[in-house]
Amino acid sequence: MELRTLRYFVAVAEELHFGRAAARLHMSQPPLSRAIKALEGELGAVLLERSPAGVALTDAGALLLDEARALLDQAERVRDRVAAAAGTRALTVGILGDGTDPGAARLAAAYRAHHPHVEVHVRDTDLTDPTCGLHAGLVDVALTRGPFDGTGLAVRELRSDPVGVLLRADDPLAGRADLVLAELADRRWFVFPRGTDPLWQDYWSGGEPREGPVVRAVQECQQAVLWNGTVGIAPLHHEPPGGLVLVPLRDMPPNPVVAAWRRGDPNPLIRSFVEIASRVYREA
């Protein structure tokens, strides 16, 4: 058995869906299905029960999942020790500067437990660069939000957050249970500077060109609303400061929290970071 095949199996076993597992692995579904079939043939056991609704683990599959996770964890530790011996003992992580995601704290604890001898450097970035310096080569991996230009990058979605509109507490719309974007069409919005990633700008502007104060950080967004009565989009889990409220937006797609890294980067610490992040956010 190859470690790569075991990773394929773990992805399918955790997602219980070949399509989602293939997307997670950044591959197409047919070779993934063939790899799992070959693994079942090699072991002489049916590992997954397939149906139109998805897949379910057999008893043999559940046993292999536990063993495969243990083997892959041990392999990561071996890579970590080899990387340390070769001098690759540091990882630079870019984090989008909203500073409020509890998942990041859980990830930090889990990564440190798994790699106690790796020094992690954190680069906190503002809202003008959703890749947190990846395109510029300033970080190894980013814990951030989408959408953004993913050219040359690999992206793993960790969670999806509903969003709402940030309003002053005395705004006429502040007492509503929810809103739609059309109700905000005549309002001034906070916007990001020119040159900001167009996909990123378009999402946080609700898909329309907007006018209003230019902001670069979460605190600036909040202050723009508080002082000017402008509006803007924010994740609903963000707790607004006094004088502000968040009202859910019915017609905005949820916002993905993602891990991103340069496609093809051989650093084993990056792969471990992404796998640990996937597990931590999935278990939250």
Low-confidence stretches: none
Distance between the termini: 31 Å
Average pLDDT, to the nearest integer?
91
Gyration radius, in Å: 22 Å
Given helix and strand content, the structural type is alpha+beta
Q: What is the 3D form?
A: globular
Percent helix: 25-40%
Helix segment count? Answer: 8
In what order do the strands lie side by side in the largest sheet? 4-3-5-10-6
Task: Produce the secondary structure layout.
Blueprint: H1 3-15, H2 18-25, H3 29-43, E1 48-51, E2 54-57, H4 59-85, E3 90-96, H5 102-114, E4 119-125, E5 141-145, E6 153-161, E7 163-168, H6 198-204, H7 218-228, E8 232-235, E9 244-248, E10 255-262, H8 268-283
Parallel strand pairs: 3-4, 3-5
Antiparallel strand pairs: 1-2, 5-10, 6-10, 7-8, 7-9
Helix pairs in contact: 1-2, 1-4, 5-8
Descriptive account of the structure:
It is a single chain. The chain has 284 residues and is of the alpha+beta class. It contains eight helices and ten strands. The strands form three sheets. The protein has a five-stranded mixed β-sheet, with helices on one face. Helix 1 crosses helix 4. The radius of gyration is 22 Å and the shape is globular. The model has no long low-confidence stretch (mean pLDDT 91).
